[in-house]
Design goal:
CATH architecture: Beta Barrel
Structural class: mainly beta
Distance between the termini: 37 Å
Largest sheet: 4 strands, antiparallel
Number of domains: 1
Strand order of the largest sheet: 4-5-6-7
Number of strands: 12
Number of helices: 0
Strand content: over 45%
Length: 145
């Protein structure tokens, strides 16, 4: 990826900064209380996870505490919650996907694999999702509680 931009956290405001010039080209305040994780994946793909505590539902079209911003810091997509009133309290596992496998004794288990196109996250209600970075589509959902 030929990308001269990075995300920085400046007093709880995320900024998209040109690494060469230091110029700030976009700013984003949290919809809720604070940011928990953020990562620039590629051009126009900045994944944000806000702290689930006191995160408002449907603020500016953002329905979940994990979402993607474009390079103008406008919402590109919001992760689809597996159930209403769910949240994502656990850390995002970057560049991962989970696949269901069957053990020798017949039990189904989830196995994590490296994947540069997806991340995984777990919800408060016990679902583990594999999500595509670029479009936010849930590739796989498993009840893991």
């Amino acid at each position: 990826m030929n990308d001269n931009f990075e995300i920085i956290n400046n007093a709880e405001v995320l900024c998209l900064r040109n690494k060469d010039t230091g110029e700030i080209v976009a700013r984003h305040k949290p919809f809720g209380k604070k940011f928990a994780q953020y990562r620039r994946i590629s051009i126009n793909c900045n994944i944000i996870k806000e702290d689930e505590d006191q995160f408002p539902t449907d603020k500016n079209g953002c329905k979940a505490n994990i979402y993607c911003l474009d390079d103008n810091f406008k919402i590109k997509w919001t992760i689809k919650m597996p159930m209403d009133n769910d949240r994502f309290p656990n850390p995002i596992q970057w560049d991962k996907k989970f696949i269901e496998t069957k053990s020798i004794d017949g039990f189904l288990t989830l196995v994590g694999q490296d994947n540069p196109n997806t991340f995984t996250c777990s919800s408060w209600r016990g679902f583990t999702l594999t999500v595509d970075y670029q479009n936010g589509q849930t590739i796989n959902t498993e009840f893991t509680k």
